[in-house]
Amino acid sequence: MELTKLTACKAADKIRKKEFSVPELTQAYLDRIGELNEKIGAYITVCKQDAGKQADNIQKKIDNNGELPLLAGIPAGISDNICTSGVLTSCGSRMLSNFVPPYDATAVKKLSQNGAVMLGKLNMDEFAMGSSNETSWYGQVKNPLDYGRVPGGSSGGAAAAVASQMACFALGSDTGGSVRLASSFCGVVGLKPTYGAVSRYGLVAFASSMDQIAPVTRDVADCAAVMNSIAGHDPLDSTSRDYGHEDYTLSLKSDVKGLKIGLPKEYFSGGIQKEVKEKVLDAAKVFESLGAEIEEISLPLLEYALPAYYIISSAEASSNLAQYDGIKYGYRTRQFEDLVDLYKKTRGEGFGEEVKRRILVGTYVLGAGNYDACYNKALKVKRMIFEEYQNAYQKVEVILVPTAPSTAFKIGEKTADLLDMYLNDVYTVPVNLAGLCAISVPCGFDSSGLPVGMQLIGKPYDEGTILRAAFTYEKYTGGNGGIDCGI
Amino acid sequence: MAITKEDIERLADLARLNLTPEEIEKLTGDMETIINYSMNKLNELNTDDVLPMEHVLPISNVFREDICEKSFDREEILKNAPEKAEGCFLVPKVVE
Amino acid sequence: MKSIPGEMEESTVEYEVVVGLEIHAELATKSKIYCGCTTEFGGEPNTHCCPGCIGMPGTLPVLNKAVVDYAIKAGLATNCEISSFSRQDRKHYFYPDLAKAYQISQCDYPLCRNGYLDIEVDGEKKRIGITRIHIEEDAGKLIHDESGNGTYVDYNRSGVPLIEIVTEPDMRSSAEVKAFFEKLKAILEYTAVSDCKMQEGSLRADINLSVRPKGQKEFGVRTEMKNLNSIRAIVRAVEFEAKRQILELEYGGVIERETRRWDDVKGESYSMRTKEDATDYRYMPDPDLYPIYVDQAWIEQIRATIPELPDDRKKRFISEFGIPEYDASIITASKTLADFFEAAAKDSKNAKAISNWVMGDLMKKLNDTGLEPSDIPFTPGNLTKLVSLIDENVISGKIAKQVFDIMWDTGEDPADIVEKKGLKVVTDTEAIRSVIIKVITANPKSVEDYKSGKTKAMGFLIGQVMRETKGKADPQAVNRLLKEELDKI
User: Fold this and answer.
1) Could you tell me the pTM of the whole model?
2) Angular region, C42: left φ>0, alpha ψ -120 to 50, beta rest
């Protein structure tokens, strides 16, 4: 039995049945990392020793027939923008290339309480800014299905690790589509929870009004299980909250009869790859055949979501990234003349180009004279988009769209054209702007054998419905989680 | 909206970013592209009667009680400091 | 020198000073505004800190409810409207004491607006407007190393809650500034919103000051002096800066819109060479914090906790204890002193005497020692007792001053002191008479003077008797008996 092929739920079950031990499973993953990480570059840090110790501790509990939490013994990877006590948390940036936080993110603490074993920290676009994982200080993550292609981003390491079986599941972050885009490019499942569902405490902030920690898993059931472990109100995060149905696994029912699914026509036109459109429309037919009611809807504000997102996220980023000044922690330039010189050189050297670009955009739109015309304008458009979705949900329960306009593109293909690169996020950013939840699920392959992802978008706090729809689809089609990556 | 090299230099100064001449050159063009694309697009929409939306969820009055908790050990607080002395973070002389 | 307020007779142009204040008060919460670290003053550097206090990545603010309660209380006590909607914003600038490189404050939607305080200067009443009161976090502290190795940063104070009280530019003299500031300080103390310890930086003021020819409607160009931390410094800074600006204008200069630093040792302000227009704080609503809605029920709940304020207490002291208005204003300006007075006076038959003691000997002791009213080493009850010892003729007024000094030093009960030291008035007629006879015998010259009609000699003889009895003899008895004895001669 190839242990790393098992989903989290299946592996947890077999651990309970003592078919194999936690140290065996952990070692299988560590071996896999040893074999593949050099080629794929998914991990920045591998916690070999700590993972071994954690595995031993959990096995002891199992041997003593102690009560086992949900994810007991399941090896996971954590994106490097999620703080882990005593373990480097670099955010994919030179700026934090020596930062070892003295605290765990709440989500990490909860995973650990639920028995998960942390394998290490995953590569990502610098400060989660990027769609292709080409901006990391630690180098490019490669798509496990084609090393010449990007894994998507910013949580490229998370998606690549799960797809290549270097982690049973992973936590990434989703500010503008990061986890969904990467999951779609790598053929795995990624869920962007409703804003506030998962505590942001310990998630290094990019755009605070939209950031969410997000699970990347092999299948939908794992996604629900991970959500069960990490969601809920945290007194350390004012924006987090409980909203009732915390047992996400209750939604794992194969039933979409009468479910009203909306297909917004704007998401299927313009620069979309033909095969992507076909596969998602095929999925709609599957839902229809299973009893769902498919309805064409219109969300004409789609084209305004991306510019609003860039203005708002850059403004917040320029604010959030001001604290990296070379004084309290992180990178500090070697030579400087005075305090201002220290600041400017530290930040000039510590940040990469994409981060600097967004800080400048943010500084511009918040500046005296531009605030109303730019930032406030974007906040108004945000409300219009929010209301457009609210109205749509009067008619339908779920919105079905592609996750990205294309499948994984070649490394370097889009670095020359900023807007072309930003357009990768065109279908994912409305969800973050409007505070919705969405899940990206594989729905086939294009002619080059690259996975296509579809997105099921739900109302705020309605993860239950999108999980149920995704689960039903996956059950019917067999899914393509746990791809063998041709290794 | 035209964005000049001088604009970029002023913004970089405000954001405390050292930029090389090449970076300034490139970022001037990039910024113009991004800002113009974004603002031209957004300005197609009439938002006269729309209120800005800071928070997407209608939540208010989130508080904690006034209760003291143990602070961190100073060692932990200073552990990551690039330069420290006498229990403090050390910075170049600040002229007031 | 041409025209300085107070020296108007020499001026060709008469100038008017215009002052507005921005006052920062640390709130009396136990924990910081956004985390559970203590607000206690001092402590070893960086020991009252958590990752949030030093702006570590991933940390988040959670607002301390008591901060809002205190700010509402301050607003109500200064006649403000309490905003039903208010919001927290980020104010960005780089400085080593500001850990996150932004300060969480309130920009467009402060908690309180449109208040005022009434002051009185030289018998003239005046209303000073309060533009707004908002909540914000304090920054850390920079310690400048003499040896020049660098600057040390201590973040213990980072995140201590503040209210900033912004006044209208309504003050026209240093006396008005002083009166307003003292009034505000008293209110903050009465409401226990802040401990107002100025020497610890709990209360500090920024002064915005301009001058203009009297009668001119437009304001002059203003300068700002930051972080003045004593009333004396505030008064001197206002006087100096007004004089400086007037001189500048008189000699054809212009006033720069700038931040100036007040050097209290040298007694002058100097330019910090910061251009105001260079700062762009890029305020934005803080996405980590939800808005604050204050409803009427909340306001009423806070209103119910506001104690009697200085003005009302002053009126009550005058009517209830019959003390002079002047005494009442001085005593009620400090809550602790007023509490002390009231506790002493309510059990006394002679509140006026209590007030005299407080205004006289007690104030002098506090001034001489530099102590605060909270440091008074004896209880109010002891002062009550001291006054009744005098009134009941157990000790003389002169002896009472000795007893007071001992009370100050030891905190002992005045009755015990009198007992222990044998300071009671001697009323034993025969004992006094024998001293008198002794004095008469020893001073024949004075007796002769008295007999020849020089009444002054009587005073001298009484003094001698009091001296012999160490001041303990009942003066009335001495007077009567001495007359009797002299008349016998």
Assistant:
1) 0.91
2) left
